[in-house]
Amino acid sequence: IRFVKNVPCFRELPEDDQLVLVRSGWAALLVLGLAHDRVDFETTETVEPSMLQRILTGLPDRQSEVAPPEPSRGVAAGVCLVDIQAIKAFLKKCWTLDISTKEYAYLKGAVLFNPDVLGLRCLHYIQSLRRESHQALNEHVKLIHREDSTRFAKLLIALSMLRAISPPVVAQLFFKPVIGAVNMEEVLLEMFYGK
Which residues belong to any copy of the NR LBD domain (predicted)? Predict the structure, then answer.
């Protein structure tokens, strides 16, 4: 949210468009921030609640009402191992590319200004902002990494990996263990408006 609030052209957008863009991009921006700050994380498989926990919390009997997780997928913090691996693969890709602070800023701009989101009033302006983010990234790469003609393509591939990461997975993995089940809509509104 701090990044978003400091982008001048974002603040010029109508408030409705700002909210739509934040709602659609918060998870990708968070994961990009993790990559930029080189934050790694570990997960452990969650243990099934004991019979006493089930009785006290009113959880259903596992054998009668809940299907077991697929053994090949594994589950940690209620998130499938496949989803965790996708996030870790994205982080590793970014770290392998040794993305600079400027490149991260351009990538965040490309994520934030997503013209594919439904309900935007300033669609053409947002399309131009996305285009500018890509152009600025490409120009920066050509200037700084002249010897690597494939770097821009590699950064776009990393961006496509990021788009495959699901916001509910990010919320489940990074917010639920800390503050419990949350309505991300309320959290975003509170952070965005400082309520």
Answer: 1-195
